[in-house]
Amino acid sequence: MVKYKRIVLKVSGEALAGEAGFGIKPPVIAEIAKEIKAVHDLGVEIAIVCGGGNVWRGETGAEMGMERAQADYMGMLATVMNGLALQDSLENIGVPTRVQTSIEMRQIAEPYIRRKAVRHLEKGRVVIFAGGTGNPYFSTDTTAALRAAEINADVILMAKNGVDGVYDADPNKVATATKFDSLTHLDIINKGLNVMDSTASTLSMDNDIPLVVFNLNEADNIRRVVEGENIGTTIRGGK
User: Fold this and answer.
1) In terms of Cα–Cα distance, which of 139, 115, 116, 123 is closest to 49?
2) Which of 5, 101, 114, 145 has the fewest CB within 10 Å, making it most exposed?
3) Is 57 annotated to bind ligand?
4) Region Involved in allosteric activation by GTP: start and end of each range (predicted)?
5) Residue 161 in marked binding region
């Protein structure tokens, strides 16, 4: 029995790069694809939003002197590369997958159309949303929150690279950092916790979409979350 029937899985670009932290590593992506397939086999409808930080970060480009909008568009293209790589791995193990981009590039992916995305999900296809929101100045966290609201997802699963939840400080730097089991979206905003940007948090709060933050690097964690096991940090409500 699954707790969540339709999910949006947010996968960071760094998670696709493995320990290298940069670039696209097919063996790493293949392992993630297997985890996704295990959940797909349960009958869960899965939409995925990929980050692009393993290839390019718009904020980094802006800090180097690039015009911010231009740098962000480059980041959107990075998410398309990641989406295509993940699609390939999923289809290699028999999971039907569609990539939809918010910026049209019809030769390689479908344009984002909400009703078509929902239809794909109903037919048992995994849908990968690439290209961010299609607008500069918005992160892929905001994309995940926006698409979750649009397709009426039950939850956003925030798959972190080596971090098993939300802490009051960086657990890699502060030995006494305390992990939260549950929070509200308002807590995230008020405490300034580094989970997702404030736009994404507000959007999730306004649309009452729960968020589960968990470690992607532990085997079977996606399935465990979908089946309702209490791992990571769950963020709800807060209005």
Assistant:
1) 139
2) 114
3) yes
4) 18-23
5) yes
